[in-house]
């Protein structure tokens, strides 16, 4: 069994260091305390905590998974409200600096993320059902993309969009209120969901994204033009965006401390763009996206001298 020793100013810090080095979760290792931390007198005789971490002989997945203790170290303790949103685990993978070309995130990179996000929306499948008004008659994404794009929705557009979303929710047996948060872009928030919030949002917001795509397609068919419509549920997207910004800043600090690149978990284009923008003005840290398809992720690295 794999076993290492680690030290830190406290037992928790020593365990944290061991978990990072092993790439394991807390429940995947056995901890033996070898030395309790000793403060000493005026700094004389002080000793750091020292532990031995032994990997348990159970099959585990690869990659360093952020446990609740490790998440607190990166993001800080989560509020009670955040537990309602079924946040997925964050995966961080240490990478050698020379494995990536640390190009500074530029306007071109931002446009690439936006184009990929648009392509993903255009080609994503949608569920057609005769139960949903307008869905059976709705054209494919390619046909909808040929319709003119309207930046500012009319009052009638807003009313149609709200009605479509309310109709879908009724067929899903979800009792909730649809709020218009803004009209530029047209953003609707599903409010007052007493149950099944996790099912409506889905893993990493995938179900909510599918619902948003469905609303966009139906409204485009009914109005004869395209709008940018964002569907949120109990402000999940707002909270997710705040968490991603916070994660980006905290991981950037880890990159500075450990002086090595860190890859975040795989994310959809619009979430990667949030991370890129959060660190776009950093003087010493840069970001880039690597991987293909669903495994595409952001790597945060130190800028090379001269960049």
Automatic annotation (TrEMBL):
One of its GO terms (biological process) is regulation of cell shape. InterPro entries: Jag_KH, Jag_N_dom_sf, KH_dom-like_a/b, KhpB, KhpB_N, R3H_dom, R3H_dom_sf, R3H_KhpB. Residues 92-120 have a biased composition (Acidic residues). It holds the Pfam family R3H. GO terms for molecular function: RNA binding. Coiled coil: none annotated. GO terms for cellular component: cytoplasm. Keywords: Cell shape, Cell wall biogenesis/degradation, Chaperone, Cytoplasm, RNA-binding. CDD domains: KH-II_Jag, R3H_jag. It is found in: Cytoplasm. Residues 92-127 are annotated as: Disordered. Forms a complex with KhpA. Belongs to the KhpB RNA-binding protein family. Has an N-terminal Jag-N domain and 2 RNA-binding domains (KH and R3H). A probable RNA chaperone. Forms a complex with KhpA which binds to cellular RNA and controls its expression. Plays a role in peptidoglycan (PG) homeostasis and cell length regulation. This is RNA-binding protein KhpB. It comes from Thermosporothrix hazakensis. The gene is khpB.
């Amino acid at each position: 069994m794999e076993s290492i020793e680690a030290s830190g100013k406290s037992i928790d810090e020593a365990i944290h260091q061991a978990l990072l080095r092993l790439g394991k979760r807390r429940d995947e290792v056995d901890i033996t305390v070898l030395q309790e931390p000793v403060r000493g007198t005026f700094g004389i005789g002080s000793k750091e905590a020292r532990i031995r971490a032994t990997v348990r002989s159970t099959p585990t997945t690869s990659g360093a998974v952020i446990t609740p203790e490790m998440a607190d170290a990166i993001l800080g303790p989560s509020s009670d409200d955040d537990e309602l949103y079924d946040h997925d685990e964050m995966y961080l993978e240490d990478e050698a600096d020379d494995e990536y070309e640390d190009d500074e995130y530029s306007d071109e990179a931002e446009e690439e993320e936006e184009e990929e996000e648009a392509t993903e929306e255009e080609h994503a499948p949608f569920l057609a059902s005769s139960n949903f008004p307008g869905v059976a008659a709705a054209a494919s994404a390619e046909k909808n993309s040929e319709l003119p794009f309207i930046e500012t929705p009319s009052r009638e557009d807003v009313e149609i969009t709200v009605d479509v979303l309310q109709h879908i929710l009724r067929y899903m047996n979800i009792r909730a209120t649809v709020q218009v948060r803004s009209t530029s872009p047209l953003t609707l928030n599903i409010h007052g969901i007493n149950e099944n919030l996790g099912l409506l949002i889905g893993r990493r917001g995938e179900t909510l994204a599918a619902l948003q795509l469905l609303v966009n397609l139906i409204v485009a068919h009914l109005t004869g033009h395209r709008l940018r419509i964002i569907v949120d549920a109990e402000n999940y997207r707002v909270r997710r965006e705040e968490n991603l910004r916070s994660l980006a800043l905290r991981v950037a600090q880890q990159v500075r401390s450990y002086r090595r690149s860190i890859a975040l978990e795989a994310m959809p284009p619009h979430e990667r763009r949030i991370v890129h923008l959060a660190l776009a003005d950093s003087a010493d840290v840069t970001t880039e996206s690597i991987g293909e398809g669903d495994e595409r992720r952001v790597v945060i690295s130190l800028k090379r001298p001269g960049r």
